[in-house]
Inverse folding.
């Protein structure tokens, strides 16, 4: 399983765009990149998943460079409710297990 | 879509008793479900992988006789913590994999807070 490295914490203000970068230098050819959000005392929530280039949905964008050794989760115009821990995971398509790293604690202030 | 529920959401039990936690996929069938444990201010740790109709696969260091997992149907998996002790107090989270294209992303339940007194 590819190991991921993320910043331990990030601070932002309401209305700003937040970019969280994850390094996964030994990502395998068939690995997908998935991001989850977790609030205290709740289960993680799926945010976005991608394999290459750019993926966008209603809540976030995921940028993946050509070498796929890193990825960036972009949250446009964050609000206080985006304060949470964000996890980056990589895994083989259909692979049974996900390994959670320490995640990035995002704190959004007024 | 892709909703996973857990019951109960929290439970308090006395040391030495057993507790059962249910995990249900409400709007999809899940051939595989996963059980995680999360201690305060720590990340999720995978305990076991539960496949419908077969024995669960436990991660290294997880006692299979203590944490009994039953995946009896495509929408229900249960985790029973037997002879619970205070050190078993934790946040237990299940997930179910929706195998629809892509990488079969996992959808997580809301978690169950277990406190053993």
């Amino acid at each position: 399983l590819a190991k991921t490295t993320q910043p331990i914490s990030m601070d932002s203000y309401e209305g700003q765009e937040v970019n969280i970068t994850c390094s996964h230098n030994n990502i395998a050819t068939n690995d997908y990149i998935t991001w989850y959000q977790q609030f205290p005392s709740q289960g993680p929530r799926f945010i976005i998943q991608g394999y290459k280039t750019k993926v966008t949905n209603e809540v976030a964008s995921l940028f993946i460079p050509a070498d796929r050794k890193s990825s960036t989760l972009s949250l446009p115009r964050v609000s206080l409710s985006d304060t949470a821990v964000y996890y980056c995971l990589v895994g083989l398509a259909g692979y049974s297990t996900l390994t959670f790293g320490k995640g990035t604690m995002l704190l959004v202030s007024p | 879509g892709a909703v996973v529920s857990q019951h109960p959401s929290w439970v308090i039990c006395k040391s030495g008793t057993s507790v059962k936690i249910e995990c249900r996929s409400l709007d999809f069938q899940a051939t595989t479900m996963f059980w995680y444990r999360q201690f305060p201010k720590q990340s999720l740790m995978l305990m076991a992988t539960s496949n419908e109709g077969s024995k669960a696969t436990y991660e290294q260091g997880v006692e299979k006789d203590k944490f009994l997992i039953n995946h009896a149907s495509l929408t229900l998996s249960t985790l029973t913590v037997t002879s619970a002790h205070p050190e078993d107090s934790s946040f237990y989270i299940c997930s179910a994999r929706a195998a629809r294209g892509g990488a079969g992303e996992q959808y997580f339940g809301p978690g169950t807070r277990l406190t053993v007194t």
About this structure: The mean pLDDT of chain B is 91. Chain B touches chain A at residues 2, 4, 6, 32, 34, 36, 43-46, 49, 57, 91, 93-95, 97, 99, 102-111, 113 (CB under 8 Å).
